[in-house]
Amino acid sequence: MLRIGLVMLQGARHAHLKALNTVSEELKLDIEIFELRNKNDLIECNPNAIVIPGGESTTMRLTGNSLNSQLFPELFEWMRKNPNLPVLGTCAGAILLSDPQDGGERIVDADISRNAFGNQSNSFQSMIYSSLLSRDFPGVFIRAPRFLDLGLKSSAVALLGEEVVGVRTNNRIALTFHPELSDDFGFHKWLLNEALEVFS
Ligand code: GLN
After folding, report:
1. How many other C-beta atoms are found inside a 10 Å radius of the C-beta of residue 190?
2. Do 112 and 159 meet the contact criterion of CB atoms below 8 Å apart?
3. Pocket test for ligand 1, best of 72, 115, 182 (most atoms within 8 A of CB)
4. Which domains does the chain have, with CATH numbers?
5. Ligand 1 centroid to 8 CA: how many Å?
6. Which atom of ligand 1 is found nearest the CA of 59?
């Protein structure tokens, strides 16, 4: 049984639940999804993989850093201590991984700029190419951030034309789009396969 921690503070969480459940059925893998709202949820989950959804990173920070929750400080340290732990951060999730703002090193080693494609009306869909999946993938970009610069510990795993829209550091993937909002669950499949490999 794989234990998957899904950050449930705000934003596009439910589509990730569906994606993870669909892929686990397809792979005939037993998974348990733990909804992470506070530090204790994380400790109880003791995850084999983590998903940080999109939404509004400022709101997520306020909630995840609140005294009641304390999820983020614990989560970021957990990831730093476990570099092989598979992590998928999408859109706002990618912002948090690239810019954790807890004084520690970046979880995904890249500079990122919020809302850098423009406002809501500049949201768009486009096919991208992912070297992680070795194929094209439908990218859904909603008030998406942009990677400005990749650090030495990162590599590009998804491209929109020449532009990097997915970055990997260790076993953590940050995507500026929403893979859970398409009907292709390739990135969720990568996550579960990776968790299986690392923890079995
Ligand atoms: N613009 C949002 C932010 O800054 C991210 C958008 C998204 O997750 N779809 O957090």
Report:
1. 19
2. no
3. 115
4. 2-199 (3.40.50.880)
5. 15
6. 10
